[in-house]
Amino acid sequence: MSTSRGYGGAGGAMENMLRQAQEQQRRLAEFQRQRAELRVTGESPDGLVQVTVNGEMKVGDIEINARAMRLDSFSLAESLQAAVDAAYAAFGERQQELLTDMLGGSELVRQAQEGTLAPEDWFRQFGVDLADPFRGMRR
Questions:
Q1: Residue 49: which of 91, 90, 81 has the closest Cα?
Q2: What are phi and psi of 38, to 5 degrees?
Q3: Beta carbons of 129 and 13 less than 8 angstroms apart
Q4: Do 42 and 83 touch, CB atoms closer than 8 A?
Q5: Half-sphere exposure of 106 toward its Cβ, with a 13 Å CA cutoff?
Q6: pLDDT digits (tens, 9 = 90+) for 73-87
Q7: What is the pTM of this model?
Q8: pLDDT tens digits for range 24-50
Q9: DSSP readout, 47-111?
Q10: Residue 91 · residue 54 · CB < 8 Å
């Protein structure tokens, strides 16, 4: 009986697991790149202030409509805060979309956020059975 045959099966399974890990790394790197490039804009309800948030979640551009100069300081501050809040909310939504794309489905993301996603279920989505990690290595 040749032991190389069994080892060859194990090698194939290990190569498959390695490919899956590399794919996950590639997806994560792509997510990080896309997140870093994000630029989202939020607008105040009155439309007088627009704020842009970048991939580092820093406020970048602030545009104030000339009509906003007629507002009192309290109202202007409220409009500015509303625009900042809208920009951060838009950033969160866009980041969530990117994360959902990376993870391969909104159901996985929902379960992960709720804390109901078991590690076994996560790995199973990518063809790895933690209950029998040597499956595919045996002949």
A1: 81
A2: -60, 140
A3: no
A4: yes
A5: 4
A6: 999 999 999 999 999
A7: 0.64
A8: 788 888 888 988 999 999 999 999 999
A9: SSEEEEEETTS-EEEEEE-GGGGGS-HHHHHHHHHHHHHHHHHHHHHHHHHHHHHHHT-HHHHHH
A10: no
